[in-house]
Amino acid sequence: MPSSSDDNKRVEVPPWLAALWFFGPYSFALLIIVISSTKIYTDMIIIFALMLEQTLAILYSPKLNSIGGGLMVSLSIISLVILWRGMSCGPIRSMITMELVMNGGFRYIHLLGDEKLRNRSFAHRIAFVTIFSSIQTSILIDSKQAWKEGKKIIVSVIIAAVSGIGSYYCISTVLPVQITSQQLLFPMRIFFGGMLIYSCLTIIDGIYRCSLLFAQPLGILCETAMDRPYNSNSFGIFWSKKWDRPMQSILYYGVFQPLRKSLGCSMSISIFSVFLVSGGIHTLGVAACGWISFRSCMMMMSFFIVQAVFVLIEGSLKIVPGMVATQTMIWISSPLFVVPFLEMLKI
């Protein structure tokens, strides 16, 4: 849907919505801590401290190349160390680790380095750092169109929820009982595990986009996180335009652009570095839960290195593999990603 630059300038996240997306994940974290933590009060204090640190950092928002900017980035790193050393609840340590690295780290650095973003309202900056990544492609729409788009999103979330529940049930209950052959069990676990991951990302993205449609007086329409990745006919297209676009945005502004523009690195080095950093973030996230094996951590890191090799070979040979070849190679390499994910869920 086309949009003008004026439309983009007028898109402003309302305070209540920014608060929803800021407090939502932390509220979920507090709930899990109350239910499963062995050190409830210590873990809760850490969560409240992280919320306070992130709020003050975004409120202050100094220039990146200033003393204040250096201090704020350093504070984010200290927060990550405190989380790892003090948080006893494994699932929340894993979730907040990803949050601090991607949003409190890369996206916050993007905010400090962009004068236009720094001049936006506090609510808008909070929304940008926590969840709202697609500012440049978002437009304002009226209530009629918002309801129309909302129905589509709700349908996609329902389908994803059914698919996710079915995949989880198959992995945890049906396959262990019905399939005795390891040669057949493993690929089926990978298939349903991949479906579960895709479903979870679709549900999170759908809820996020649907909430933006209720921003009044006009709804905010932004691009989907997933754009039919199963239709990708090249590895470059799959990873840059189709799969988890908010994550790609973080990596583009946080890794690729600085390497290319500030350090003058070659295209190949910049692309490989993006996958290397992405692999590091995902590996750190799954390892943070405390029970992922070293082998699975290496598998997770290897997955992103393999994808980098695919993209670089494709670019150097200047070929388009086609949809069949692209999807086949991604599925063949997918156990490197899916196995650690299933181990993290203990299924």
How would you explain this protein's 3D organization?
The chain is mostly helical and 347 residues long. It has three domains: 133 residues, no CATH class; 82 residues; 116 residues, no CATH class. It has 15 helices and two strands. It has a two-stranded antiparallel sheet. The radius of gyration is 21 Å and the shape is globular.
Multimeric state: single chain
Beta-strand content: under 5%
Describe the sheet with the most strands.
2 strands, antiparallel
Helix amount, in percent? over 70%
Q: Give the count of structural domains.
A: 3
Strand order of the largest sheet: 1-2
Q: Which structural category do the helix and sheet elements fall into?
A: mainly alpha
User: How many helices does DSSP assign?
Assistant: 15
Characterize the overall form: globular
Average pLDDT, rounded to a whole number, is 88
Brief digest:
This protein is mainly alpha-helical. The protein has helices spanning 5-10, 15-36, 40-60, 67-86, 90-113, 115-118, 122-130, 143-178, 182-212, 235-242, 245-262, 267-287, 294-317, 323-333, 335-344; strands at 139-141, 219-221.
Which short descriptors sum up this protein?
globular; two-stranded antiparallel ribbon; 15 helices; mainly alpha; 3 domains; 347 residues
Question: How is the topology of this model organized?
Answer:
Blueprint: H1 5-10, H2 15-36, H3 40-60, H4 67-86, H5 90-113, H6 115-118, H7 122-130, E1 139-141, H8 143-178, H9 182-212, E2 219-221, H10 235-242, H11 245-262, H12 267-287, H13 294-317, H14 323-333, H15 335-344
Antiparallel strand pairs: 1-2
Helix pairs in contact: 2-3, 2-5, 2-7, 3-4, 4-5, 5-7, 5-11, 5-12, 8-9, 9-15, 11-12, 12-13, 13-15
